[in-house]
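[Meeting: bench + compute handoff]

Bench side (C.D.) handed over the final construct sequence. Compute side (W.E.) agreed to return the predicted structure before the next meeting so the bench team could plan truncations. Sequence as handed over:
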Amino acid sequence: MEIASGISCSGSNNKSTDNSKQRAIVNPSEGIDYISNLPEAILLCILSLLPLKEWIKVSLLSKRWKYLWTQISNLNLDEVEMITNITKKDISCPLCGKFPSPGSSCPCLDNSICAAQRKFADFVDRMLLLHSGDTINNLRLSFLYDHQDGYTKRIDTWVRYALRSNIKELELNFSDREYFKFLGKKRLAVRWANPHQPYELPHGFFKPKILETFVLTFCKFRASSFNALSSLLRLHLKQLEVLDGSIEQITSRCPVLEDLILEYCLIPDGSFVSEVDIMIKRLSMIHCASKEMLRVDISTPNLLMLTIVGKYLRSASIRKATKLIDAQISISAISAHKADGHALNSLLNGLNHCQSLTLSTHCIRVSL
């Protein structure tokens, strides 16, 4: 009963405290619900640390907990996590009783996964419909998209909600795994997402007001769909097909943007060619490509960190980079293409103010 002596409430007298301790001692089997008596802010903090599957269980505890989860400010809606927890306890085929081997086809297992996916979609619908609408610090939505599963319209609704709500950090991931993996003893892996048909963000002139961090993975992206992102500090694009726009157009819509990161993106030709000063502080381009060989020709007077990793460069020039602290350059096909050599020389000439420069071995030739 020592825990009772450590709990105190402002405005309560000693007599009531002694009585509560005495009741706990007299009838210890009754139990005291200390957690439900905590301030709402603390309860919301506790809920935000729980896995997705626990939110549903918690909502059944009492009337106070029933809708408390709708005020959570950190939402991690991960389809893989939820479906794994639903199906991994009973993934054997109900007809044959066997556990399918990785890569095998089992209609019963497919049906189980489809049912679990429907539960996840219904849960997301309910979560977004009932959420209080207050500021959300962080929303992460991860969904293994397949254009044939019939969920496109529902996903469009989720995305529109996210881009029109008061969210500070937003991550939308539409297929970061080629296989659906169960973490059970059988280590079963089932192919799920179709990597050849990425999701395309819905059209619309979105104008999120307080969005500071935006992470997009595996989809088609149109810069023209965004009217303005006035508070955006960090934009991270991974495995995207950028359908329109350039670095100049993106930064004009994001006036306070500091970090721009692109990984394995297919970008329009000339996206990184601009005569206008680009005021970002950190730029990272990792294995990006365009229909033609990649060109980089920008002016970056505020640039502090630069990373360029890839195979080919048609031309490259970084102008006004007088504040540059760190640069990492890796062009792997330098020995096979003379154009890369000219591009690299031009790039290095613009990095003469850099305090720390790292070049991969592919970029270095030694003549004996």
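W.E. noted at the follow-up: The mean pLDDT is 77. C.D. will use this when planning the next construct.
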